[in-house]
Amino acid sequence: MSFPQIPKIEYKGPESTDPLSYRFYNKSEIIMGKTMEEWCRFSLCSWHTFRGKGADPFGFPTMKRHFDDESDSMENAKRRIDAMFEMLMKLDIGYYTFHDRDVSPEGSTLEESNKMLDEIVDYLAEKQKKTGVKLLWATQNLFSHPRYMNGGATNPDATTFAYACTQAKKVIEINHKLGGENVVYWGGREGYQSVLNTDVKREMDHMAAFFRMCRDYRDKIGSTAQLLIEPKPREPTKHQYDYDAQTVIGFLCTYGLQGDFKVNIEPNHTTLAGHDYEHDILVASKLGFLGSIDCNSGDPLLGWDTDMFCTDIKKTTLVMKIVIEQGGLHAGGLNFDCKVRRESTEDRDLFIGHIGGIDNFARGLRNAAKIIQDNVMDNMVKERYATFDEGFGKTVEEGTATLESAAAFAVKAGEPEQKSGRQEEYEMILNRYV
Amino acid sequence: MSFPQIPKIEYKGPESTDPLSYRFYNKSEIIMGKTMEEWCRFSLCSWHTFRGKGADPFGFPTMKRHFDDESDSMENAKRRIDAMFEMLMKLDIGYYTFHDRDVSPEGSTLEESNKMLDEIVDYLAEKQKKTGVKLLWATQNLFSHPRYMNGGATNPDATTFAYACTQAKKVIEINHKLGGENVVYWGGREGYQSVLNTDVKREMDHMAAFFRMCRDYRDKIGSTAQLLIEPKPREPTKHQYDYDAQTVIGFLCTYGLQGDFKVNIEPNHTTLAGHDYEHDILVASKLGFLGSIDCNSGDPLLGWDTDMFCTDIKKTTLVMKIVIEQGGLHAGGLNFDCKVRRESTEDRDLFIGHIGGIDNFARGLRNAAKIIQDNVMDNMVKERYATFDEGFGKTVEEGTATLESAAAFAVKAGEPEQKSGRQEEYEMILNRYV
Amino acid sequence: MSFPQIPKIEYKGPESTDPLSYRFYNKSEIIMGKTMEEWCRFSLCSWHTFRGKGADPFGFPTMKRHFDDESDSMENAKRRIDAMFEMLMKLDIGYYTFHDRDVSPEGSTLEESNKMLDEIVDYLAEKQKKTGVKLLWATQNLFSHPRYMNGGATNPDATTFAYACTQAKKVIEINHKLGGENVVYWGGREGYQSVLNTDVKREMDHMAAFFRMCRDYRDKIGSTAQLLIEPKPREPTKHQYDYDAQTVIGFLCTYGLQGDFKVNIEPNHTTLAGHDYEHDILVASKLGFLGSIDCNSGDPLLGWDTDMFCTDIKKTTLVMKIVIEQGGLHAGGLNFDCKVRRESTEDRDLFIGHIGGIDNFARGLRNAAKIIQDNVMDNMVKERYATFDEGFGKTVEEGTATLESAAAFAVKAGEPEQKSGRQEEYEMILNRYV
Amino acid sequence: MSFPQIPKIEYKGPESTDPLSYRFYNKSEIIMGKTMEEWCRFSLCSWHTFRGKGADPFGFPTMKRHFDDESDSMENAKRRIDAMFEMLMKLDIGYYTFHDRDVSPEGSTLEESNKMLDEIVDYLAEKQKKTGVKLLWATQNLFSHPRYMNGGATNPDATTFAYACTQAKKVIEINHKLGGENVVYWGGREGYQSVLNTDVKREMDHMAAFFRMCRDYRDKIGSTAQLLIEPKPREPTKHQYDYDAQTVIGFLCTYGLQGDFKVNIEPNHTTLAGHDYEHDILVASKLGFLGSIDCNSGDPLLGWDTDMFCTDIKKTTLVMKIVIEQGGLHAGGLNFDCKVRRESTEDRDLFIGHIGGIDNFARGLRNAAKIIQDNVMDNMVKERYATFDEGFGKTVEEGTATLESAAAFAVKAGEPEQKSGRQEEYEMILNRYV
């Protein structure tokens, strides 16, 4: 066992003071017609949790994992996979996610890398079968290797573009083989460091071509995996084309890809783009584009992706309310794209981070269900827009209003009545639930 | 005369140390086939320059203007217009812009407001005729009056929505009458302060309906004015739907309005959205959406719109390079949506601010022309993307590449050659021109 | 009555859903040996609450208050004071704060202003006597009038400096007369907009001179009011000399004033300076400089002072924990330097904002007391530093260690044992209390 | 030779288009009584330039240096030193800087590390002798090794504190041996990630103890090296005690160390702290604390230390103006704590980055001298404060003014005359020089 000192984590209720227990996550409990497990679809990520060692731009790795000898061997890769599945079992959650290069070493040629990856995929398939754990999504790492320093799908060099395509092709295949429910595209190097050396139009066109090629190939091999683009604003590339949810949705509409891709939202990216934690999730959901969530959190005072476990119950409540309102995450899930702090060096910290993350979203789910069932806030909002349910307002929503009909209505109606937005009261009500 | 102490500003060349002279702006000098005047199409704004008095959230107005008795009378409105045209003549520039409520008082009813506005429009038409100055664009103020506190086109109340439509209708009419080349839509209150009390989907739908109604009415009355949306991220409303250029373009594509609207970019809004000064101008231009520019500048360390005159020659150079590359601003212009600092209380400061702004963009134009004519940087960029001009790269741009053809190419090509991005050299070259 | 529709707000316990009740603030309930009232010392501010009308840089006032005819008359000033004391009674809290120019009109000369202020002070004294309400602090407004556009104590002009001194002198006097427990100095215009036109050394020297003169005068007239400087980083002046708590403390030490002034911390200013909400309160408290708190909150995504009521229970908990640990606020208090949103236009909103603010700090106090009494976290922290309680560590704290004694110890001790920081566990424990 | 393809860089004047030449830096040219070399005192840093390989949090190293086999051997360490001195000769600049662990490997014990370091120091001494290059400063790396993850001088563990002291002791010794003119203290891990697990008071006390111990030891061994603390706000530790220049100066005053330490300012840290590029340099200089400058630059839109070469001539002009005004940098210098972008992978880029940096500060020096000699701006500033040169104003500066004397003066003087701050004119004048 990789984590001999860690027990299976069990639900002990809100009074529990055992850090190795759940206070809110009770997997099979029914909330508004679904189990908590079905609502949350929690997922472990292979990169931060099994490859992250605490290095930062100013410091060396701090964490030693006893299941990882830090070699590039296949044996070591499999040991890390064993540890991941042990952790999945101990946390009692059902999904995992990976990049191709997290789970399998990079060889000296593409063919060699792919051969090793095939062997690892067989190993993962076997693990999935034994445990019942499923693959939420796979993705390709087109940002760590020096060949991608100037981009993958937007690299000025066509050979590198082709290399990126080859990795993407392989990921579509192995994801299909493993029954992955989504494929994710995060374009960390798709953007510019300097406008001086960049042809932004050509790069955006190439990115669109890349997405079209991926969609076509998915269809060709008979995969039905949902395709998801993950927005991020400014790291590692100064400007990334996938800045935020609305930018991605706009990009998809501009290039006619809006029927084929949805978005995977990471709230830490949302706040880096200058929006509230829940903004991109909300907007994507309301526009019909919310595919999945990387349920982490950032520090609003730091200018980079800190990938922390979310500890703010108000935020988890608002997110789970949106999830309930769209009837669940469907093929998506809540993926812990989170890491323990560099100073949290013990295996125990790794579990406590995840337990906290799981419990905080479970608590958010409970709160959100109660808010929806009480129907106090939603009723207030509905009432606020009531003038668009009838008369002139209705013609606006039906598309028959004109500036002239509006002017006629306005002159007749006279000065509009002032209506308080009552923000403080909404906030007070929300605070009753958290 | 409103500014008796200010002479007509003339071009005296780069050695001039007279603050009331141009060092770079030589109106009729030909640069790359057009006069400087034609490239720049400078425009005075009526709000900051003729209505702004230096108030800020912590302080009262500091500026007394001798042409403004601070009353709401029509006489006073006309005196301000006289001053504006005097300033246009003294600066020797050809365009101006206004909001309906800058130039004309708000009455106690819509009808009364419109009646006064009609009288002012006649006055403006007469002034235009006398001076040859033209209207770059008009716009409606849907953000200052308390009725718009919860939005204009996105107000939860249909009566207020109708009121906003009525102002917009009038502006389309008067702009047409005055030969305005554009109509601008800036949605300062179109967004949310709190997601708790907001139905974002309904509000975005209403905003799209409003834009459709405006387009239809423009067409109906036979106006050919270009319609422009001006993005802004977070002030005065915490989140605005028109966050930045790509968000607006995406919105237009989502709602099928992409053929009817372009964007008016204000760089201070761009930097507030977290992008480089020139980013929105660049992206909008390359995607075919750049309509006009509000040529101001912000302070990257302050979190609000400071609306300063741009003093950074590197930035004006990059902007004018984009303008030249798209063949000029066409119906758009460089509008000084800028204000002197609250402590710059003399009329002389008002002129010096504008002279600096004009000269800095003129200097940028001269630099940009030299960069383009030397063709050093652009050649370096072209060379950087050369692999997409032939072979596999060309099939990507033509749309015939597939992941399979890419993989075949990549395997054959082997590891891509590393190519330095040479950012420091590009920056060194740019510094030769500024 | 100014607020006939608002009842006296009473404690109804955590299950209450009446927005016009307290769920957590039970004034006379004893927590850790003091009443909640004694711990919190809540205070109403006269400016936002009785002078703020919802204007912002893009919009006119939105709020009509029936007790305010918006004239500059003494009658109106007294009506506002009546409303303030009515609100104090209805909220059942014991302190208020004001700027000289909030409560009393500015006359056409200093003498006239002071004469009116004297009349108002008599009126306030009478009100205090009738109600038992006390003055937490008074302050001078040296930032709103145009004369202060270039600063008060740091104005380049000695006449304006003298004017500022005169207002400060009067405030020390009236504060003494009204039994005010502190005098506050907030230097909104004490800084620079541009280094180009500023002699920062001379300005800092003048600021120190001003503070010395204030201290001397306070002593001279026999006042024992605590003197407090309020830090703020970048608004309304681009750079303010009182940037944050440590900058102010450093300034005081540099100029030998550290025994005479403490700080009044406003967390919205702290976050604008780039620190965590509780940072300045913490650092000031630990260094012995925490005098009082303006208990508001900002929006981390907006770059200005939003002065919102604090709705984050985790933050109120951390603040009240610091307050308990230093044995209370002594002469200071929790002053609501907060305003309702511009769209919250009803009197009811004004009360709900304050009730929420009061309840959230009361809830924080309850949480903090429980954390301290359980002593789980503090014990963990104490244990973490235990090596400084003995041996070599103790010599460091006693001041007898040298680099040589350290080196001898280090060589003998060998590589230090790695100790996890356990941040996720601390966060998990904190979440049990909120 | 490590850089066989790079010639010696020579001054060719402003018209040069050879990227491997100086356009502005003419080493022995006299500017205002000193050579450019004396004013600038340029220095190469060993870490970014000779150890940096382009890794970032999302990607592996991109740069291969032919003089570095990436081993930890002493031979490799010496090869890197050879390359550094070759580069110093080719750039023709006179200083270098290093951290102990940049230039020499870390052994398995302190003793072993120190033994290797001694050998390297001998090698450096020999190189210095051969080339005439001098050591600007040495410093200790107390942030990269995992033992320092919770801090060096502020580590909760006394053994780690002692380890940090031991490194600091050795650096004072070797710096003395090599004739280093300063020792620098940058406390990257001296702060907190979370207030929950931190005793900030104890940590600050320990930091002060550490500084005292360093000062005492420097004095004891007869070194006269200037001791410099380098402020930085939020990276790698969320909050660092040395936030900015004024915080450090305040800390020194609080703990009575103000006579023993100055500051080393890195402008990229200054902007991360929310101040203008030149702010900390200016304030430190005016308060008598400016010791040396790490002359890099950041990106105002990115939230971390990008350590770029400064390309903004206006900023280099303002910095060099401050340097001239304080009579030069004395023991300090302009140290290139800068790195080429990750995508700039060739040796040529490394030289071009430095040439650009050198030339931009040389250009700034030329501009600054001209501004000072023309004396237009400084005269305007002097005039602005003239009222403090006589009468009441003078009594303020002399310390004899009181609130009472101020009030008497103010009443007599009446309403102060309004004086424009003329910021736009100052900016226009500055633009004449850049």
UniProtKB/TrEMBL annotation, chains A, B, C, D:
Enzyme type, top EC level: isomerase
EC number: 5.3.1.5
InterPro entries for this protein: Xyl_isomerase-like_sf (IPR036237), Xylose_isom_bac (IPR013452), Xylose_isomerase (IPR001998)
TM regions (residue ranges): none
Catalytic activity line of the entry: alpha-D-xylose = alpha-D-xylulofuranose
The keyword Transport belongs to this UniProt entry's keyword annotation: no
Chaperone among keywords: no
Any one biological process term the GO annotation gives: D-xylose metabolic process
This protein's UniProt keywords: Carbohydrate metabolism, Isomerase, Metal-binding, Xylose metabolism
Family: Belongs to the xylose isomerase family.
PANTHER family: PTHR48408, XYLOSE ISOMERASE
Name used for this protein in its record: Xylose isomerase
